[in-house]
């Protein structure tokens, strides 16, 4: 059995211009239950973590101003979201969900957050629909509280570079950041991950999977992590309006299978967060995310 973090706040209603990307947080759990991929017992409702856990990753000044609604207009525009108390509750709850997933993955091998993967958030600012960096905060939580976890690998396969995550761990030897992303996609100014694999526009299944199959086993042997965070964005799909790559849904599924089978082969606990997905048809987004859960059920169920 594996566990899944979900909270009604994940589907937080936003202005109409932001509403469509949030639909998957309502539809995906419904589809997983309908298909029997998970049961109600698989889901847990995350709680906001203590502020001290957030402050392991984010500066006190930024976090205090974020909670109080005191970001400048420029800072707020950079996040892409209009500020509200409910939005902050949502972001803190997502972060808490990824931390709790990390605790459960230590016991059960894998846990998945229906949301998460907010990899554009830096220590002192938010960007690109990311206010708090959930995987970075969960990695810092493990390093502080889990004695057996000495080295962490973050595998970021969202189509956009995890610039905030890269910057947060640039001088941290205990966290290795690996990002495969569109070379010409957002963010236009990239940070330096420990390993970046930039992809040309139009990259197809065969090329993508070959590059990943070359890089990831080598990293597992060289880095020798004790724990993996996997950002499984489905904005790599050819149908994605922001992605500019050419992966099919089957190629995206094979990507997930490669990552999860390697984690299982190396006996590494893994937390999976869903990341981005902006295909015009919501069914394309939900189905690609559902494949990740189907694989988890096949391998860990």
Automatic annotation (TrEMBL):
<dbReference type="InterPro" id="IPR044150">
    <property type="entry name" value="HDAC_classIV"/>
</dbReference>
<feature type="domain" description="Histone deacetylase">
    <location>
        <begin position="22"/>
        <end position="290"/>
    </location>
</feature>
<dbReference type="InterPro" id="IPR023801">
    <property type="entry name" value="His_deacetylse_dom"/>
</dbReference>
<dbReference type="InterPro" id="IPR037138">
    <property type="entry name" value="His_deacetylse_dom_sf"/>
</dbReference>
<dbReference type="InterPro" id="IPR000286">
    <property type="entry name" value="HDACs"/>
</dbReference>
<protein>
    <submittedName>
        <fullName>Histone deacetylase</fullName>
    </submittedName>
</protein>
<dbReference type="InterPro" id="IPR023696">
    <property type="entry name" value="Ureohydrolase_dom_sf"/>
</dbReference>
<comment type="similarity">
    <text>Belongs to the histone deacetylase family.</text>
</comment>
<dbReference type="Pfam" id="PF00850">
    <property type="entry name" value="Hist_deacetyl"/>
</dbReference>
<keyword id="KW-0378">Hydrolase</keyword>
């Amino acid at each position: 059995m594996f566990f899944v973090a979900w909270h009604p706040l994940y589907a937080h209603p936003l202005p109409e211009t932001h509403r469509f990307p949030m639909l998957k947080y309502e539809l995906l759990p419904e589809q997983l239950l309908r298909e029997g991929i998970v049961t109600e017992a698989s889901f847990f409702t995350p709680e906001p973590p203590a502020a001290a856990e957030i402050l392991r990753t984010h500066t006190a000044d930024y976090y205090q101003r974020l909670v109080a609604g005191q970001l400048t207009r420029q800072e707020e525009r950079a996040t892409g979201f209009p500020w509200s108390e409910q939005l902050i509750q949502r972001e803190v709850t997502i972060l808490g969900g990824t931390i709790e997933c990390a605790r459960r993955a230590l016991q059960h091998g894998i846990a998945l957050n229906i949301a998460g993967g907010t990899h554009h958030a830096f220590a002192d600012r938010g960007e690109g629909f990311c206010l708090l960096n959930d995987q970075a905060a969960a990695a810092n939580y493990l390093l502080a509280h889990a004695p057996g976890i000495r080295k962490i690998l973050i595998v970021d396969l969202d189509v956009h570079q995890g610039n905030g995550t890269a910057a947060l761990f640039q001088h941290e030897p205990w966290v290795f950041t690996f990002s495969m992303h569109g070379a010409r996609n957002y963010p236009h100014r990239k940070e330096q991950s420990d390993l970046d694999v930039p992809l040309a526009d139009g990259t197809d299944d065969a090329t993508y999977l070959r590059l990943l199959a070359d890089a990831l086993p080598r990293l597992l042997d060289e880095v020798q992590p004790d724990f993996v965070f996997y950002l499984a964005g489905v904005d790599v799909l050819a149908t994605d309006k922001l992605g500019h790559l050419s992966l099919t849904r089957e190629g995206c599924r094979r990507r997930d299978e490669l990552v999860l089978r390697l984690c299982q082969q190396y006996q590494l606990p893994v937390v999976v967060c869903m990341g981005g997905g902006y295909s015009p048809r919501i069914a394309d987004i939900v189905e690609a995310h559902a494949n990740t859960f189907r694989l988890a059920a096949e391998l860990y169920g």
